[in-house]
Amino acid sequence: MKLQIQGAASTPGSLFCVDRGSNLSPLPLSNLPQSCGYTIRSTRRDFVLVAPYDGCFVAHEEDSYVLPLRWCGLPVRMSCPVMKPSAPNPPMVTCHSEGMVVKTDWMISAAKIIVKLNDVWEPLLSASAKCGFVIVVLPDGVAISARYAPCLKKRDGLYTLELYGDGETKISCPSLSATEPELTKSPPNYPGPQTEVPSKGILNL
């Protein structure tokens, strides 16, 4: 974190001290060892203090990094929020009748991805040989073509693939078995209309 005070040419860094609490006297920044990682720069226009998050006397309080200081005897605090890593985007999946295609944006090596098969985690690369998975490394992630047979089991009508790379994810696809074509039924043979031919009688005269 960085503290910059403009127009402080007349304020040397020796007037800044680390506030070590009520039991210890303030420690001038100029007396800190180089191993603390602090950078102090004073010019004609401003005074700049740069303190690393893992530097001496930097505390982690809730969601912030805090460095308690004293400037000319007045208590001040340098504070910066903790930058939380953004959650990775969920993978994109396309379901097919024989398998699924999963596209992730994980920017890690495919050798570091593991898959859960029969409740056991194992490397994806070794599982692909026995399961028939195809792995393609793309510039913006990893794509996996996973056949259902023989490794993915159907439960409650769903095939599920569990992966762990840049976070854990679970992808499910419904069973899309090929629809059997409907048989064409021939119409029933109803008896057609019959024409009654009158029988010839014998006329006796």
Automatic annotation (TrEMBL):
Region (Disordered): 178-205
Protein name: Uncharacterized protein
Lineage, broadest ranks: Eukaryota, Metazoa, Chordata, Craniata, Vertebrata
